[in-house]
Design a protein that fits this description.
With 330 residues, the protein is α/β, with parallel strands linked by helices. It folds into two domains: 2-113 and 286-315, Quinone Oxidoreductase, Chain A, domain 1; 116-258, NAD(P)-binding Rossmann-like Domain (Rossmann fold), CATH 3.40.50.720. 33% of the residues lie in helices and 24% in strands. It has twelve helices and 15 strands. It has helices at residues 12-15, 42-49, 107-111, 115-127, 144-155, 167-176, 189-196, 212-220, 242-248, 257-263, 265-280, 297-306; strands at residues 2-6, 16-20, 30-39, 66-69, 75-78, 90-94, 99-100, 135-139, 159-164, 180-183, 202-207, 221-229, 251-254, 288-292, 312-315. The strands form three sheets. Strands 3, 4, 5, 6, 7, 14 and 15 form a seven-stranded mixed β-sheet that branches. A six-stranded parallel β-sheet has the order 10-9-8-11-12-13, sandwiched between helices. It has a two-stranded antiparallel sheet with strand order 1-2. Helix 6 (167-176) links the parallel strand 9 and strand 10 (180-183). The longest helix has 16 residues, at 265-280. The protein is globular. It is an enzyme of class 2 (transferase). It comes from Streptomyces lavendulae subsp. lavendulae. InterPro entries: ADH-like_C, ADH-like_N, ER, GroES-like_sf, NAD(P)-bd_dom_sf, Quin_OxRdtase/zeta-crystal_CS, Zn-ADH-like_protein.
Length: 330
C-alpha cells in the first residue's frame, strides 16, 4: 500500500515521503481499517516537526484522525494507532474506541467531526460551562478548530464573536453565523469586544492560538469569565499573569482532549452521540474547504502548519491523483 512516512523530523514538505509499504498488521485489541478520509490536524504538523508531546518511533506515518471502513463493511471514525497514522491506504486502530460515522456526513466531513468538535464540546460545556445567552469569543474562527467552536457555541445559544486574520477568513466567519467578526489585522480586538458587549467583555474565550491572542483575551474577558486554553497554533506559549486573573476574577482553563479519551472514554462516547444528533439536525457541519488526494498530503500538512488554510483540509485516498508538491514524494 501507499503511505506517507517520516524518517527524519522537519518541515512537512521535506520530511514526509510517499512510499510503498506493507499493510499494517493489527495488534491485540486492534482492527485494520481502509482509510476513506483522513483529516489534517495541527498535531500532525507538530508530529512531523518532532514538537508534539507524543513522539512515535521513526519512521512513522502521521494522520491522527480518519473515517474508515472495517473489514466487515462498517463506516467508522477512529484515531489510528501510531506509528501507522492515517495518511495511508490502511491503518490499525483500537477496536474499543471505534465510533460510528454519522450517516448525515460524507467521509471527509465525518473524518473532521471527531477531535476538533470533541475538543470544542468539552471545552465549552464541560470546562467553561457555557450558558445560553452568554458571549463566546473564538480565536481563529475560520480555521478547523475555531469553526467547530463557532458552530457549537451557536448551537448552545451563545452570542459568538469570531476573530480572524484577513478579509477572506472574515467572510468565512460571517457565513458560519458569527454575530460579530473581528479582523485582528485591521481592527483593535479589545476595543471592538468591549464596544460590542457594552464594556462587559466576553464570558467565555476559546483560544487555540496562544501568544498575542491570549494577551488580548485577558484584556477583554468579562467578570467571572473563562478563558479556555486549547493550543498554541500561533507558536508562542503565553505566560499568564495570575495576579491579573485574581484582580479581574476570571478563570484560566486548560483542555487536553486526549486525556478524556484515556481517562473517561464513556464521556467521549456520550459526546459523540451528542455531536451526531447536532449533525443530524444541521446545527453542526465540518467546514471542509478542500478534499485532496493522498499524493498531496504533505503539501496539505505544510499549508496547515503555515497558517494559510481556512476550514479543514481532508486527505481522501480515492480522490483523483494530483502531481506531488515540490519536495514531496521523493
Amino acid at each position: 500500500m501507499q503511505a506517507w512516512r517520516v524518517h527524519t523530523t522537519g518541515e512537512p514538505r521535506e520530511a514526509m515521503r510517499l512510499e510503498e509499504v506493507p499493510e499494517p498488521v493489527p495488534g491485540e485489541g486492534e482492527v485494520r481499517l481502509r482509510v476513506l478520509a483522513a483529516n489534517v490536524n495541527f498535531p500532525d504538523a507538530l508530529l512531523v516537526r518532532g514538537q508534539y508531546q507524543i513522539k512515535p518511533p521513526l519512521p512513522f506515518t502521521p494522520g491522527v484522525e480518519i473515517c474508515g471502513e472495517t473489514e466487515d463493511g462498517r463506516r467508522v471514525i477512529a484515531n489510528p494507532s501510531l506509528p501507522h497514522g492515517g495518511f495511508a491506504e490502511y491503518v490499525t486502530a483500537p477496536a474499543r474506541a471505534l465510533l460510528p460515522a454519522p450517516g448525515t456526513l460524507d467521509d471527509a466531513e465525518a473524518a473532521a467531526l471527531h477531535i476538533g468538535y470533541q475538543t470544542g464540546w468539552f471545552g465549552l460545556h464541560r470546562r467553561a460551562r457555557l450558558q445560553r445567552g452568554e458571549t463566546l469569543l473564538v480565536h481563529a474562527a475560520a480555521g478547523g478548530v475555531g469553526s467547530a467552536a463557532v458552530q457549537l457555541g451557536k448551537a448552545a445559544g451563545a452570542t459568538v464573536i469570531g476573530v480572524v486574520g484577513g478579509k477572506a477568513k472574515a467572510r468565512t466567519a460571517e457565513e458560519l453565523g458569527c454575530d460579530l467578526v473581528i479582523d485582528r489585522t485591521a481592527e483593535d480586538l479589545v476595543a471592538r469586544v468591549k464596544e460590542f458587549t457594552a464594556g462587559r467583555g466576553a464570558d467565555v474565550v476559546y483560544d487555540p492560538v496562544g501568544g498575542d491572542a491570549y494577551t488580548a483575551s485577558a484584556k477583554c474577558v468579562a467578570f467571572e469569565g473563562r478563558i479556555v486554553v486549547v493550543g498554541f497554533a500561533g507558536g508562542t506559549v503565553p505566560t499568564p499573569a495570575l495576579n491579573h486573573a485574581l484582580v479581574k476574577n476570571y478563570s484560566i482553563l486548560g483542555l487536553h482532549w486526549g486525556l478524556y479519551a484515556a481517562k473517561d472514554p464513556a464521556a467521549v462516547l456520550a459526546c459523540h452521540t451528542e455531536l451526531t444528533r447536532l449533525a443530524a439536525e444541521g446545527l453542526v457541519k465540518p467546514l471542509v474547504s478542500e478534499r485532496v488526494p493522498l499524493a498531496a498530503a504533505a503539501d496539505a500538512v505544510q499549508r496547515l502548519a503555515d497558517g494559510t488554510t481556512t476550514g479543514r483540509l481532508v486527505v481522501v485516498p480515492s480522490a483523483p491523483a494530483a502531481p506531488a508538491a515540490d519536495g514531496a514524494g521523493r
